[in-house]
């Protein structure tokens, strides 16, 4: 996920404090250090709720919030954390480089939306326009360059890290189009009503494309399968809980995301439900995995023929959990 967290600089401290309060006096038997790739945002809400549930089962999850995706991945590789969350393509690229990692479930689905001023009414009008994306070998680059190839246009490319930063640049007239996360899309629409719109919903065009994923090392999977399964089960129950009772996600978000407006939280939660951003079955299966790898290959993010589903994913823990709690 691409987030600068400028409006949520206190979120990490708030999350840590609230998790301690929620945990009460329970004595955890096993600690799981968890690496997040940024400060907390709406996509993290179910997992943060899940950590509280795990305390009752003898697991203490210790969240750590990193400033960049690469740092969260390195924390898991280097043993500073046991499990982490990161953009699917970032984990796939690490595996391509030979890192000892596997994807075990999905945190949030692909949520990217291409935003433009309302004067741009069709993708072909992006010809020669300033189109910004996060950086090389990222999903945002793949999506906008797919757009250019599909509609046979040649925009002026700009690299601007951070969905929130690009959204601000769009409102200031510094760029003409950019892929943005749902929270930033809604912020733009609320801040500048009638001036901007979603030109392309990549979430709807590529619903099978993996978004942010949960991952760990092969070694941890081999030696701590009960902990991995317990964590996945708690996450899926949290996904199902917030789908059944949306107010629970809003209540938690108001506590954990102090810089976000209540009206924005309502809109984000509504859009998340409509797009089923939190997958109640964990998101990872062979079809979605292979579809995502094919997309990454076709857009030049990974080398063709090098990676297979079994090289990148370990679905067994998720399958065991689904067998236990049932599919929906």
Quick one: how many beta strands?
10
CA distance, first residue to last residue: 26 Å
Amount of helix: 40-55%
What would you report as the Rg, rounded to the nearest angstrom? 19 Å
Average pLDDT taken over every residue: 90
Structural class: alpha/beta
Q: Please indicate the percent range of residues in DSSP E strands (runs of 2 or more).
A: 15-25%
The major β-sheet equals: 5 strands, mixed
**Sequence stretches where pLDDT stays below 50 over 5 or more residues:** 2-10, 20-28
- Reading off the top of the CATH hierarchy, the class of the largest domain is best stated as Alpha Beta
**Major β-sheet strand ordering:** 2-1-3-10-4
Tally of structural domains: 2
CATH homologous superfamily heading of the largest domain: Periplasmic binding protein-like II
The H/E string reads HEHEHEHEEEHEHEHEHEHHHHHHH
**CATH architectural type of the largest domain:** 3-Layer(aba) Sandwich
Provide a count of the helices.
15
CATH topology of the largest domain: D-Maltodextrin-Binding Protein, domain 2
Verbal overview:
The chain has helices at 11-23, 45-55, 69-77, 88-96, 139-151, 163-171, 182-191, 202-205, 218-223, 225-244, 246-256, 262-275, 286-298, 309-312, 316-325, and strands at residues 30-36, 59-65, 83-87, 101-108, 113-117, 130-133, 156-159, 178-180, 196-201, 212-217. By secondary structure, it is of the alpha/beta class. The protein folds into 2 domains: 6-110 and 209-325, Periplasmic binding protein-like II (D-Maltodextrin-Binding Protein, domain 2); 113-205, 3-Layer(aba) Sandwich (D-Maltodextrin-Binding Protein, domain 2). The strands form 3 sheets. Strands 2-1-3-10-4 form a 5-stranded mixed β-sheet. Strands 8-5-9 form a 3-stranded antiparallel β-sheet, sandwiched between helices. 48% of the residues are buried.
């Amino acid at each position: 996920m691409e987030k600068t967290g400028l409006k949520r600089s206190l979120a990490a401290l708030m999350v840590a404090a609230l998790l301690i309060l929620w945990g009460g006096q329970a004595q955890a038997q096993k600690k799981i250090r968890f690496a997040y790739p940024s400060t907390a945002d709406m996509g993290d809400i179910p997992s943060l709720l899940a950590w509280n549930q795990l305390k009752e089962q003898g697991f203490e999850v210790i969240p750590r919030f990193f400033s960049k995706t690469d740092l969260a991945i390195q924390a898991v590789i280097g043993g500073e954390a046991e499990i982490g969350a990161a953009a699917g393509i970032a984990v796939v690229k690490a595996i391509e480089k030979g890192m000892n990692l596997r994807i075990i479930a999905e945190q949030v689905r692909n949520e990217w939306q291409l935003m433009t001023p309302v004067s741009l009414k069709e993708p072909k009008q992006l010809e020669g326009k300033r189109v910004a994306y996060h950086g090389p070998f990222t999903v945002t680059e793949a999506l906008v360059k797919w757009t250019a190839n599909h509609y046979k246009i040649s925009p002026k490319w700009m690299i601007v890290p951070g969905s929130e930063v690009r959204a601000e640049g769009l409102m200031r007239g510094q760029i003409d189009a950019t892929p943005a996360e749902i929270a930033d899309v809604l912020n733009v629409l609320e801040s500048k009503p009638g001036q901007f719109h979603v030109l392309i919903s990549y979430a709807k065009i590529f619903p099978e494309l993996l978004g942010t994923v949960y991952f760990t090392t092969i070694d941890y999977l081999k030696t701590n399968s009960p902990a991995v399964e317990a964590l996945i089960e708690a996450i899926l129950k949290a996904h199902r809980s917030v789908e059944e009772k949306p107010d629970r996600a809003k209540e938690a978000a108001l506590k954990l995301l102090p810089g976000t407006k209540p009206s924005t939280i309502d809109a984000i939660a509504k859009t998340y439900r409509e797009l089923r951003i939190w997958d109640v079955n964990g998101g990872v299966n062979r079809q979605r995995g292979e579809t995502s790898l094919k997309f990454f290959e076709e857009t030049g993010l990974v080398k063709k023929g090098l990676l297979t589903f079994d090289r990148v994913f370990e679905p067994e823990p998720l399958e065991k959990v689904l067998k236990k709690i049932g599919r929906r």
